[in-house]
């Protein structure tokens, strides 16, 4: 079982079993990814298309930078703002956990299932 921990907390950021079975919060992050149609620009596997690879970006982007980018957008680079999207706003931590798990290599495929 792979786990990543937040620096400011002892609770795991995400929990992954077998590379694709994830905890409830991380599953909600995947659902948010799908609901916001992030794959249109970042690719179905988060490896980039018109937008950059999030698998690579989240290796260096802090959580605060991630949240700012998603909420405010980067209009000069074609990244729209999701700050008025209730699904994204309410699930930003879960979205970060899902994408960070992908970036860290703990989640080995883009489509995940909830741990039963």
UniProtKB/TrEMBL annotation:
Transmembrane segments: none annotated. Gene3D superfamilies: Cytochrome c-like domain (1.10.760.10). The keyword Metal-binding applies. InterPro entries: Cyt_c-like_dom (IPR009056), Cyt_c-like_dom_sf (IPR036909). Residues 24-103 form the Cytochrome c domain. It comes from the Bacteria. Keywords: Heme, Iron, Metal-binding. One of its GO terms (molecular function) is metal ion binding. This is Cbb3-type cytochrome c oxidase subunit III.
């Amino acid at each position: 079982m792979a786990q990543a921990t937040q620096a400011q907390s002892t609770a795991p950021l995400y929990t992954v079993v077998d590379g694709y079975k994830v905890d409830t919060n991380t599953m909600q992050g995947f659902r948010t990814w799908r609901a916001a149609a992030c794959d249109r620009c970042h690719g179905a596997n988060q490896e980039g298309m018109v937008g950059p690879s999030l698998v690579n970006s989240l290796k260096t982007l802090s959580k605060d930078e991630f949240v700012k980018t998603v909420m405010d957008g980067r209009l000069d680079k074609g990244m729209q703002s999701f700050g008025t999207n209730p699904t994204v706003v309410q699930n930003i931590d879960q979205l970060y956990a899902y994408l960070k798990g992908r970036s860290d290599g703990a989640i080995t495929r883009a489509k995940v299932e909830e741990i039963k």
